[in-house]
Amino acid sequence: MTPMIDVTFQLITFFMFTLNFTEAEQDERIQLPVSQLAKPVEGSAADPITLQLMRDGQVIYAGEPVPVAQMGGYLENERRIMLSAGKQPSEATVIMRADGRARTGQVQELIKVCQERGFDRFVLRAEYKE
């Protein structure tokens, strides 16, 4: 009986370490666009900042909806934190999860706001469909 309990705890530990429970990466309000050119993620992003653009043009940042026009202040805080940690904003990867029904101009506007604060590495998320 003891070996079965040990194996069970080892399996639980394994799954806890391998599963990603971050809610910042996923939000049910976002329906990713479908693309045949989407590729699987290669490795993990260094210093990721996840921005989720909703259909109505607001950005989910830290779990709260924020208008794109106000994202500059939040990104400025991210930049200051990185600089105080001895890193440059250009080292961070901005993960953009834009709703497939959001306007393209809103995505471009959000990228522009990020670039004005020194963030220039982007990953755009999409669902793969054959």
Name the descriptors.
130 residues, globular, alpha/beta, two-stranded parallel ribbon, five-stranded mixed β-sheet
Furnish the topology, listing elements before pairings:
Elements: H1 2-18, E1 34-35, E2 48-53, E3 58-61, E4 64-67, H2 71-84, E5 93-98, H3 104-116, E6 122-124, E7 127-128
Parallel strand pairs: 1-7, 2-5, 5-6
Antiparallel strand pairs: 2-3, 3-4
Task: Please explain how this structure is put together.
This protein has three helices and seven strands; from the N terminus they run αββββαβαββ. It has 130 residues and is α/β, with parallel strands linked by helices. The chain has one domain (22-128). A five-stranded mixed β-sheet has the order 4-3-2-5-6, with helices on one face. Helix 3 links the parallel strand 5 and strand 6 (122-124). The model has no long low-confidence stretch (mean pLDDT 82).
Instruction: Provide mean pLDDT, rounded.
Output: 82
Describe the main β-sheet briefly.
Answer: 5 strands, mixed
Derived from helix and strand composition plus strand pairing, the structural class reads alpha/beta
Instruction: Give the number of helices.
Output: 3
Uncertain stretches of 5 or more adjacent residues: none
Order of helix and strand elements from N to C terminus: HEEEEHEHEE
What is the total tally of β strands?
A: 7
Helicity range of the residues? Answer: 25-40%
